[in-house]
Design a protein that fits this description.
Binding site for L-homocysteine: 464-466, 517, 632
Oligomer: single chain
Pfam families: Meth_synt_1, Meth_synt_2
Distance between the termini: 84 Å
Binding site for L-methionine: 464-466, 517, 632
Structural class: alpha/beta
Bound molecules: glutamine, zinc ion
Binding site for Zn(2+): 674, 676, 698, 759
Strand content: 5-15%
Helix content: 40-55%
EC number: 2.1.1.14
Strand order of the largest sheet: 1-12-11-10-9-8-6-2
Length: 787
């Protein structure tokens, strides 16, 4: 019996190769385009995306989303927060209201009345990716009701596209609906009344059953059910929920492909293998360790799907190396009666950019090493053909691939001896205790030296770094990029913006000033552009949430800092004031976590290289007379591994990297760090180990409750708890700020408190920033007087 090899994908990027979906959404939300126009644009993108997947045996259907797939699943399950229910709207407008608290101004409620705003649903990270999904809200009384219309409509659409574009002789791709499984849906949500989410499973399963039945009635054979939660640690109750769910769903007349991704199944392997489903997808890139144990247990009647192409990164797959381990697996399955092996990317391609071919300016040595979504699907085709017909059938493709992989492995830009030596030297047994990671004196001593030097008042005021990125700044940047504005003219404009930011801060009476970051397009890309070892794409956009995209730089090789990156701008800013000017850097962990990172060495090693580059910049700033240096680590928490068991190892090297970057300075130099989130409980020991003199954090929305954790932990260094939410255009009053700071002072001694906003101000207008900061400075003055 020969083995049947089939190719498929778990999902395709939705945003469009040129971010078409982003622009269509934003036009609709501004009221400039109709809902019909937006929907037509969505249909056009789906059609394009299926066409790009023409060579596959199955097409995902329902992976496309106008905002978020978890939210879509909620609508399919008739489950939206109560504050949004009861208004008869187009489901898409309902989705936008849930996600954004509002929809387009043209969307009207019953009798044409404008819709009131309501608090948007929360977002959370989609597992360990930089994609954010909407958090389903549950309470004891939550009910569900099937609305299969989205999936059914897109199924019809996909069949039509298949019929039009794929010749019948070759066998057309089979459209296969994608849904989020019931257990992951519950796990991603939050109970609003303390009730047990799992108790809802009983009510949820009949709706899933009806959905599968509805799809079966429409002629669907296979349904992809995503249960990524299987790659995380599961308690006994959650494991039990899997049993209950899939034993109940097995009665449905469709075959289920249970998909897991983002990591190994480890102790959930037995559970996953034995669930009564027709097929199982395993992430064979991150979860390769599961493969042998899995094959030993494999029930021969099931379809095994292996995710062999990395859906989380942009590197070309080493096809020969993949075949080296894949061929024996195929041979083993071949013995099985009617054995089936499916190949796919490891996870949905949502997390990579669309098409490398659009990159005309990308570093020409690096470009051939890369594969975006489109290229990854081509790799899949080569692998499929090699397994079906032997490697000789695809000899040319394999050879080209080998040449590219070999070039990458041996490139002098990937392996730089000078960097290797520096890393070697810094890599002591324990970085944090060597001169590389250790400040000269403990914080209590440093604090006195710094107080002497800086002469700051009690409750010193500062901001987090960026000031409004005005239209003028953004236009100058794009004109400069397009070559229509000379370097000198661009620099002069940025200098003028920096001067303006400093003058405004002087006038406001802030104590520690910033230059405002006018010259930075993005806090990671700005450094990526200046460091050797990074390449910058033009269209390498990846969805972060809704219409928001990020363009992660591509970290391909050993990191070197050819010259100082921020010293000149900081000096310039300092020249406009006698107040201390903060140097402003992005930390190594954030540079790492917000980039596509090389996969040929451990992330920890790459992070240390970044740390050494940032360290050199810190020391250059110090030499230039900068007395306060802020090193942002906005993404430290984001890098936490999926499984808590893996947290300590990550935190160890992440903290070490920060310490290497920051701690080479003299006692008199004050190190700040900034983290814009409000969950610290579980990582506070690591945060304390960073040993930054001052940490500024987001706290305004949690009403300073967050400081309780710092208090209980006896956090020893100084803290700037954010006093106002920079995400909102609302200007806080002086009284509100004073009240928040008084609450803060109940938990943290006033001598250790700073006064600052939650985060940078780049998305705000000057007209909002000035009154807000005026109130903040006035509040600090009032607090000092009252002290
Ligand atoms: N210094 C950066 C800014 O103010 C920090 C941004 C961030 O933490 N996300 O914009
Ligand atoms: Zn921030």
């Amino acid at each position: 019996m020969t083995l049947q090899i089939q190719l498929h994908s778990l999902g395709f990027p939705r945003i469009g190769a040129q971010r078409e979906l982003k622009f269509a959404l934003e036009a609709y939300w501004r009221g400039e385009a109709s809902l019909a126009t937006l929907k037509a644009q969505g249909a056009r993108l789906r059609r394009l995306h299926w066409a790009r997947q023409a060579g596959l045996d199955f097409w995902p259907v329902g992976d496309f989303s106008f905002y978020d797939h978890v939210l879509d699943m909620g609508l399919t399950l008739g489950h939206v927060p109560e504050r949004f229910a009861g208004v008869a709207l187009d489901p898409l407008d309902t989705a936008f209201r849930v996600a954004r608290g509002r929809t387009a101004p043209t969307a009207r409620g019953p009798h044409g009345a404008p819709l009131p705003d309501a608090p948007a649903a929360e977002m959370t990270k989609w597992f360990d990716t930089n994609y954010h999904c909407i958090v389903p809200e549950f309470h004891a009384g939550t009910t569900f009701e099937l609305d299969a219309s989205r999936l059914v409509e897109q199924l019809v659409e996909a069949r039509q596209v298949a019929a039009e574009t794929c010749p019948p002789v070759e066998g057309r791709p089979q459209p296969r609906p994608v849904i989020l499984g019931p257990v992951s849906y519950l796990a991603l949500g939050k109970s609003k009344d303390g009730s047990d989410r799992l108790a809802l499973l009983e009510r949820l399963l009949p709706v899933y059953t009806r959905l599968l039945q509805t799809l079966a009635d429409r002629g669907v054979h296979w349904v992809q059910v995503d249960e990524p939660i299987l790659a995380t640690e599961l308690g006994a109750d959650w494991k039990h929920a899997f049993q209950t769910a899939y034993h109940q769903l097995k009665a449905c007349p469709v075959k289920l492909l249970l998909t897991t991704y983002f990591g190994p199944l480890r102790d959930n392997l037995h559970l996953a293998v034995n669930l009564p489903v027709a097929g199982l997808h395993l992430d064979a890139v991150r979860g390769r360790e599961d493969l042998q144990p899995l094959l030993n247990l494999w029930p021969k009647h099931k379809v095994l799907s292996l995710g062999v192409v990395d859906g989380r990164n942009v590197w070309k797959t080493d096809l020969n190396a993949t075949l080296d381990w894949l061929e024996p697996v195929a041979e083993r399955l071949e013995g099985a009666l009617g054995g089936q092996l499916w190949l796919a990317p490891s996870c949905s391609l949502l997390h990579v950019p669309v098409d490398l071919d659009t990159e005309t300016d990308l570093d020409s040595e690096v470009k051939p090493w890369l594969a975006f979504a489109q290229q990854k699907l081509q790799e899949l085709q080569v692998l499929g053909q090699a397994l079906r017909e032997g490697r000789a059938a695809v000899a040319a493709a394999l050879q080209a691939n080998q040449a590219a992989c070999q070039a990458r492995r041996t490139s002098a830009r990937v392996h730089h001896p000078v960097v290797r030596d520096a890393v070697h030297e810094a890599l002591g047994a324990a970085v944090s205790s060597t001169r590389w990671g250790q400040r000269q004196s403990p914080h209590a001593v440093r604090a006195q030296v710094q107080a002497q030097q800086l002469q700051l008042p009690l409750y010193p005021t500062t901001t987090i770094g960026s000031f409004p990125q005005t239209l003028a700044i953004r236009q100058a940047r794009s004109e400069h990029k397009a070559g229509r504005l000379s370097d000198a003219a661009y620099q002069a404009l940025m200098a003028a913006e920096i001067e303006r930011a400093v003058r405004e801060q002087e006038a406001l009476g802030l104590d520690v000033l910033v230059h405002g970051e006018a010259e930075r397009n993005d806090m990671v890309e700005y450094f990526g552009e200046q460091l050797e070892g990074f390449a910058i794409s033009r269209f390498g956009w990846v969805q972060s949430y809704g219409s928001r995209c990020v363009k992660p730089p591509i970290l391909f090789g050993d990191i070197r800092r050819p010259q100082a990156m921020t010293v000149a701008w900081t000096r310039l800013a300092q020249s406009f004031t006698h107040k201390p000017m903060k140097g402003m850097l992005t930390g190594p962990v954030t540079l790492l976590n917000w980039s596509f990172v090389r996969d040929d060495q451990p992330r920890a090693d790459t992070c240390l290289q970044l740390a050494l580059a940032v360290r050199d910049e810190v020391l250059d700033l110090e030499r230039a007379g900068v007395r306060i240096i802020q090193i942002d680590e906005a993404a430290l928490r984001e890098g936490l591994p999926l499984r808590q068991a893996d947290w300590p190892a990550y935190l160890r090297w992440a903290v070490d990297a920060f310490r290497v970057a920051a701690n080479g300075v003299a006692d008199a130099t004050q190190i700040h760090t900034h983290m814009c989130y409000s969950e610290f409980n579980d990582i506070l020991p690591a945060i304390a180990e960073l040993d930054a003199d001052v940490i500024t954090i987001e706290t305004s929305r949690s009403d300073m409750e967050l400081l309780q954790a710092f208090e209980h932990f006896d956090y020893p260094n100084q803290i700037g708890p954010g006093v106002y939410d920079i995400h909102s255009p609302r200007v806080p009053t002086q009284a509100q700020i004073e009240q928040l700071m008084r609450k803060a002072a109940e938990r943290i001694p006033a001598e250790r408190l700073w006064v600052n906003p939650d985060c940078g101000l780049k998305t705000r207008q000057w007209a909002e920033v000035i009154p807000a900061l005026r109130h903040m400075v006035a509040a600090a003055q009032a607090l000092r007087q009252a002290h």
